[in-house]
């Protein structure tokens, strides 16, 4: 591939993606940045809301990634937690579903930089 062609692809956003499967799994971010990930099957539980509230306090600059399509109406409770704590959030819809899991993540709390936490699940 010619260098100019590669530069043109990157300018248009059509260049190669780094770890696309990992980014699909973690709602558009990399595993190394994930602080907490909540599976779809855990969305309605009070334990997941409590865990998220604790992590939001501990990581005030972390962004809550919310997959509205997967979470359904329950996303509002989690959104309110992010708003109350002052954390930024991103609402995602029509998110590409990961082929790596049958119980995808509905919420991911992610840092802007690598945190490399060993346990991100509840």
What does this structure look like?
This protein has 122 residues and is of the alpha+beta class. The protein has one domain (31-122): Ribosomal protein L30/S12 (60s Ribosomal Protein L30, Chain: A), CATH 3.30.1330. The protein has 5 helices and 4 strands, in the order ααβαβααββ. The chain has helices spanning 3-12, 20-25, 46-58, 68-71, 75-85; strands at residues 34-39, 63-67, 89-92, 105-110. Strands 1-4-2-3 form a 4-stranded mixed beta sheet. Helix 3 (46-58) packs parallel to helix 5 (75-85). The N and C termini lie far apart (44 Å). The model has no long low-confidence stretch (mean pLDDT 89).
Proportion of strand residues? 15-25%
Overall structural class, as computed from helix and strand content, comes to alpha+beta
What is the CATH class? Alpha Beta
N/C terminus separation:
44 Å
Q: Mean pLDDT score, rounded? A: 89
Q: Output the helix-strand order.
A: HHEHEHHEE
Total domain modules: 1
Q: What's the story with the biggest beta sheet?
A: 4 strands, mixed
Morphology call? elongated
If you consult CATH, what is the topology?
A: 60s Ribosomal Protein L30, Chain: A
Fold topology:
Elements (H helix, E strand, L loop, with lengths): L2 H10 L7 H6 L8 E6 L6 H13 L4 E5 H4 L3 H11 L3 E4 L12 E6 L12
Parallel strand pairs: 2-3
Antiparallel strand pairs: 1-4, 2-4
InterPro entries: DUF1694, Ribosomal_eL30-like_sf
Protein name: YueI family protein
Pfam family, one: DUF1694
């Amino acid at each position: 591939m010619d260098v100019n062609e590669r530069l043109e692809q990157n300018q248009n956003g059509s260049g190669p993606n780094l770890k696309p499967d990992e980014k699909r799994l973690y709602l558009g971010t990399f595993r190394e940045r994930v602080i907490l990930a909540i599976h779809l099957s855990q969305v309605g539980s009070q334990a997941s809301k409590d865990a998220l509230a604790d992590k939001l306090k501990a990581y005030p600059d972390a962004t809550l990634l919310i997959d509205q399509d997967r979470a359904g109406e329950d996303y509002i409770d989690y959104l309110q937690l992010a708003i109350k704590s002052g954390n930024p959030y991103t609402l995602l819809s029509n998110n590409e579903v990961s082929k790596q899991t049958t119980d995808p993540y509905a919420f991911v709390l992610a840092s802007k930089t690598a945190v490399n936490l060993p346990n991100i699940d509840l």
